[in-house]
Amino acid sequence: xxxxxxxxxxxxxxxLWALLAALRAGWCLLPQSGYLHPDEFFQAPEVMAGDILxxxxxxxxxxxxxxxxxxxxxxxxxSGVVYWVIKSLQQLDICSSCxxxxxxxxxxxxxxxxxxxxxxxxxxxLAPFWGADPWKALVLLAGSYVTLVFYTxxxxxxxxxxxxxLLMVLVSSRKSSGSSAEPTSSSLIGVITTAxxxxxxxxxxxxxxxxxxxxxxxVESQKSIKTLINHFLKLILCACFTxxxxxxxxxxxxxxVSLDNLYSTNKSSLIDVIAQLHEKMVVTPxxxxxxxxxxHNLALHGSHPRVTHFTVNGVMLFGILHILAIGAGLKMLKxxxxxxxxxxxxxxxxxxxxxxxxxxxxxxLFYFVPLAFLSLFSHQEPRFLIPLILPLVLFSAxxxxxxxxxxLLVLFNLLxxxxxxxxxxxxxIPCLFHLEQLIHSPASSSHPxxxxxxxxxxxxxxxxxxxxxxxxxxxEVIDMAGSGEETLCRTVEQRASNFTCSDCHIFIVIPGTVRxxxxxxxxxxxxxxxxxxxxxxxxxxxxxxxxxxxxxSQLGLYILELKRDH
Length: 566
What we know:
Number of strands: 5
Radius of gyration: 27 Å
Helix content: 55-70%
Oligomer: single chain
Number of domains: 2
Strand content: 5-15%
Shape: globular
Mean pLDDT: 87
Low-confidence stretches: 353-358
Distance between the termini: 79 Å
């Protein structure tokens, strides 16, 4: 009876995981309207849309040749490849209108959604090794709003999480007999660790525990010093080769170095070529670290208390699972401090904590060590922690740790998916879809018009979604960010005073919570379009107003067209 009950619950878990996996893919295609952070656009899709599709975009400072802080390899391999494919389809007349705001948004996201199933594969592979229930862990993973929302977006943090998962798979190998297998993946560990470092230098914080665990297995399983050295040499050589590939690609991209330029004169020797490359060499992780280790630079992006990751961000992302992990971690810390004291007095060898504790204690180290290292920096955002979902669900799905608080988990993830997948800055993407259709409408094509699009109190609009070629000069985008009333009104009045041409159109995009500001600018508006829902945490709606009949306006984004007779 117990066996039948277990088989029945496993079947329910399989069906539930399949439904959640379908939801992940379907919601990506819908698409999700929530806008999490500008980096989901400006660290890959926006840059590649400008480089490959020749669209008008905004290049962030990290991708300027004067301050290269982001590798171009991963953007090229993800958004770049996808955009090249849809460009080729359009050029071959297989799809005459492949390039539009929908495909520009969804195609890179769809690739990342497909990649997100690397997490599911990793959990399924890792669960038996770490003593977790595979399907319980998979349901926890697939049902988390972090997977549904964050892992379907084009963040470098998403790639960091996938590389972390692959690294954990590589260091966790078991023989069919059940004992730990001899580690043989030195080369791949070197490649993935280096690739992760170039993607985000913070990857070293996530890679530390897996690499130490792998090294402890190597030391325990190898009796020969020669074999031991061989493993580490393979890792170092592959890491160096991977670094050379990234540095070469970034150098060619950021400095526009070409072989023709290098061999421009017949007198150029190989030594001269190498010297030129060395002089122009770009190592983006070092530039990234140099920038972020400066407290003044971090303050420009926002400073937070050092305990923000532990007390706020972990709870915001993982809810009760994070709180339970902290409780378990404190209990195990007390236990192991006592045991280590005994080991120190009674046993002269190494305690072997990593090697012999293949279950919960080591998983907690995989979770809390990166958390502690990331907490050393004053700039702390929730998305920095999304790679930690893997060790957390494996820890939470161990057989001796029943998943309690099921209803709370469901409600928490429903709320998180609604807030971040739909509401948060949720009007901006549909607004850009609407404006793209307006700009490319048949009327605009037959009679060219000039459009001025002014965005105020919204996240930075990704200009690529407007689908405007660099050669087209009939659209101007002005991002006012969170400008005050005086600055905003002065800009609007200046644009209104230059409102002379018969085919000029000025649109102002502003949240409903600050719409009253624009009405005090002494201008009048014609057409109004309200896009719902849109929640701005920088300009949140007031609770008393939400309870009134004006709640839809407060949770909306307005597109206001300036009247000619202002």
